[in-house]
Amino acid sequence: MALRKIRIDDDPLLRMVSKKVKEVTPRIKVLVEDMFETMYKEQGVGLAAPQIGILKRIAVIDLYDDNKFVLINPIILETEGEQTGIEGCLSFPGRVGDVTRPNSVKVEATNLDGERYIIEGEGLLARALCHEIDHLDGIVFIEKAENLHDDDDINDDEDIDDNEDDDVDEF
Ligand code: NI
Q1: Residue 153 pLDDT exceeds 60
Q2: How confident is the model over 3-45, as pLDDT tens digits?
Q3: 40 or 152: which carries more pLDDT confidence?
Q4: Residues around ligand 1, an ion, CB closer than 5 A
Q5: Residue 146 annotated in active site
Q6: Domain boundaries, the chain
Q7: Distance 95 CA to ligand 1 centre (A)
Q8: Distance (Å) from CA 157 to ligand 1 centroid
Q9: I need a surface site. Which of 6, 8, 18, 119 has the fewest CB within 10 A?
Q10: 12-170 is a CATH 3.40.50.1000 domain
């Protein structure tokens, strides 16, 4: 396993559409392991392959609730409702904003065994799924965010002294 470098800000790869994965090869499995390792190191809850410079339709999600999701060639089948909440992205360090997403989504994806499966996510999981699938289409959250600002602002405005880690989830 190896840590990968996260592409940030104006990196053109973040705005490109990723290609479908034809087969879950051993190399893809290593890539997925590296993605989890890199995501954990950066304390993110999701990571998409283009964020580490690989234009393949692969994303990983772990909300630290004992569920790890590997999403290869994910597609959104259904969405329902709406939620607006604060969001961050590992590719835009220090930036946060309010993003409106579906409240629940039904996604079909391939797992590491090469099988298609269904994930139904609500709330934060729905947000993570949409954020990652956007990455695979070259869409970054700052395009959708309102009230985009530095997350340091939050701490300045609040009386939370010891809260050095920001509470905003980064995907
Ligand atoms: Ni992101």
Answers
A1: no
A2: 999 999 999 999 999 999 999 999 999 999 999 999 999 999 9
A3: 40
A4: 89, 171
A5: no
A6: 12-170
A7: 11
A8: 25
A9: 8
A10: no
